[in-house]
Amino acid sequence: MEIGVVVHGPNIIDSGYANDIIDLLKEYGDVSARLGGTMGRTAVIDNSLEEIIDISQKLVPSDSLKLFLDENKDIIFLLNYGKSDVTGQVFGYKVVNHYFDKTNNKNIPIIQIERPGENDGSVILWCGDYEELADKIASKLSLNRVTPNEIFEKHFKQDFKDSRTHRLVHGVSPGENIMVNSVVIGKATSDNLVLIAEDGYIVDIVGGILKPHGVEKLSKIDLDSAIIKTGLLRKSDVKPRVLEKKQEGDKFKVAFLDHAGEDVYKYSDMDLVITIGDDTTLISSDILYRLDIPIIGITDGDLDKVVEHGYKKEDSIIFELESGFDDIVGRRIFDEIFNNSNVLEFDKDVKIKIKNLIIEILNNMNCKYKIKVI
After folding, report:
1. HSE (CB half, 13 Å, CA atoms) of 70?
2. Could you say which of 12, 46, 141, 224 has the lowest number of CB atoms within 10 Å?
3. Contact criterion met (CB below 8 Å) for 5 and 25
């Protein structure tokens, strides 16, 4: 039997269960595993699992499922370790339904293994006729069997009456950050959270407080398909593994990253990355540390903690500006230094030159700042 395994998120990897379950599934056939999502990449790297879990492509989980379908796998497993049984099961429901939107084939069985090792952990057979195998896996891992219908009845039978778009967010705790498409747009004040959008723009949060600056950064979205995360992106306290950087050519390449720090992997061949915003700088520097790439971060103290520890490569530079100036300065850097391009190439290391150009922009704006060298 040809088995595909989609691994989602850092927790299932850091816990050791991803590797253990992959080994378990080898009893039933040939296993191929790939990542679904982005933040799990650092966990794969830190745990030296690149030869076991394919991280060569940036794919949302539903696309990873579809790719295994296209590769004619006999069965697909989705491994996840949500922060609660609610978030994990709701995650699976949405991923599988996004997958169904992309293909009419519901014959290939999809089995989700959720929160292994926890009392509320579960095995869910989303489609296909593999009840016996799902029961065996649940028994071996001491997990509960939960049906898709139970999840729908419990979490999705809710009817909103007005014309605006609503998105119920499950499994939230008060005080957690709310991230939409990698941008922090507010903070939860209740475990009952609903995001409300009008004409594609988030206009209100029921059970939370909007962060106007974040909403402005987010701009227009499709709330139904947006990727929403709450709390820390990665909780495990791990020792980061730094990959050896390959020197390619004699050019010094510099990238500009304004937001969505999870997209930073596409700049893995850079020599330096300029990051704009506190959260973008925190997420990006943590990832780039593992890729042995320094940053120049533009921040203004408006930080929403989204990872437990934010590592930065030695020789990175952080500009701490007065409040509200990071985006303004970021636009000036993009216009005046990068000439509206996301990547620049130089003949040699120009970090000091770029630093001085940023200082010149700040001085011309009469913006107060501090410089911190890591």
Report:
1. 9
2. 224
3. yes
Q: Which is it for the CA torsion 42, 44, 46, 48, positive or negative?
A: negative
pLDDT tens digits along 269-278 = 899 999 998 8
CB neighbourhood size of 162 (10 A): 8
Give the SS3 label for residue 258: coil
Nearest by Cα to 257 from 278, 274, 269: 274
Q: Is the dihedral of CA 13, 305, 86, 144 positive or negative?
A: positive
Identify the bridge partners of residue 76 per DSSP, sorted by sequence position.
4, 110
Residue 109 in contact with residue 128, Cβ under 8 Å?
yes
Q: How far is CA 72 from CA 3, 32, 69, 107, in A?
A: 9, 12, 5, 11
Tell me the C-alpha to C-alpha distance, in Å, between residue 190 and each of 105, 206, 211, 212, 305: 39, 9, 16, 19, 18
Residue spans of the chain under pLDDT 70: 157-163, 233-237, 247-249, 259-262, 302-309
CA distance 197 to 223: 7
